[in-house]
Amino acid sequence: MNQLKKIIHFNVIPFIGRVCLSNNKYCNVIYYHDIVKGEGFSYMRANIDVFKSHMDFIASYGYKTLKFDDLNSDDNVKFGKKKVIIAFDDGWLSNYSEIFEYMKSKNIKYNIFLAVGEIGKNKDYITWDMAREMHESGIVGFGAHTYSHVSMEDLSKVDYNLEVNTANEIIMKELGVQPFDFCYPFGYFSDESNEYLAQSSSYRRLYTSEWMYSYKISNTIIFGRNKIGNDYLVNFFEKVVNGYYNVHTMLHRHIKKL
Ligand SMILES: [Zn+2]
Predict the structure, then answer these.
(1) I need a surface site. Which of 15, 30, 112, 201 has the fewest CB within 10 A?
(2) How many other CB atoms are there within 10 angstroms of residue 201's CB atom?
(3) Euclidean distance between the first and final Cα of the chain, in Å?
């Protein structure tokens, strides 16, 4: 990154984000994937010590963390300073083995979007027994992330019955709860997929991977999300958690129009 880009990314964008904070209508969402003991990589693998430094910040500054079923309350789902939804994509084993006890000890709630076809079948992912234990703890919420981890951007190319209906039924059978939260695999989505999923009423909330303001279609909230990278130092993490980067997509579109 050259100097000008650095200044824009680390100073200008968070400044505009702070000024525009009232445009954040819904609770801020951050997300991780795998948490590893060894070397991290981008936002796909965060090193455990880096991750703990982020969570220590959340705990020591008194942030309220929310589980998916907390979001059924209008008050909870509203944007608030020091309020955050922490999500993990896919259902990696480390979401249980590396962090469950730690998050419990800190009383930090988190959520996992399950790539349902991998759960209990792929050794790198959690099992249903682990998911049940986490669910029963009251600390961890679960959402859907399709059955085969396919792009849902163009729904005409997707086996909707398998990726949505079957995936939801399996979560319901294994955990006893209907998932109301859905995360797009790879972050790929389109206006059409949002419209279709919103009117199908399969879910109450859809999550993209774009740094953007969240909004509503019919009764469905489309959440923008903030990825958290392995190289995020705590002072940058703080700006992301506070929602200053949700202006990102809006600024990007404006710049492209010029
Ligand atoms: Zn995924």
Answers:
(1) 201
(2) 10
(3) 22
CA–CA separation, 233 vs 249, rounded Å? 22
| Residue 25 near residue 247, CB atoms below 8 Å | no
Residue 250 Cα to ligand 1 middle (Å): 24
How far is Cα 97 from Cα 76, in angstroms, rounded to an integer? Answer: 29
List of residues 6+ apart from 234 with CB closer than 8 A: 53, 54, 57
CA 64 to centroid of ligand 1, rounded, Å: 25
- For ligand 1, the distance from its centroid to the CA atom of residue 15, given in whole angstroms, is 31
Domains (ranges, CATH) in the chain?
A: 3-12+25-257 (3.20.20.370)
List per-residue pLDDT tens for the chain, 258 residues long: 689 988 988 999 999 999 999 999 999 999 999 999 999 888 899 999 999 999 999 999 999 999 999 999 999 999 999 999 999 999 999 999 999 999 999 999 999 999 999 999 999 999 999 999 999 999 999 999 999 999 999 999 999 999 999 999 999 999 999 999 999 999 999 999 999 999 998 999 999 999 999 999 999 999 999 999 999 999 999 999 999 999 998 888 887 765
* CA 91 to ligand 1 center in whole angstroms: 8
Q: Which of 182, 228, 214 is nearest to 57 (CA)?
A: 228
Kindly give the distance from the C-alpha atom of residue 115 to the centroid of ligand 1, in angstroms, as a whole number: 7
Neighbours of ion ligand 1 (CB under 5 A): 89-90, 185
List beta partners, residue 86. Answer: 30
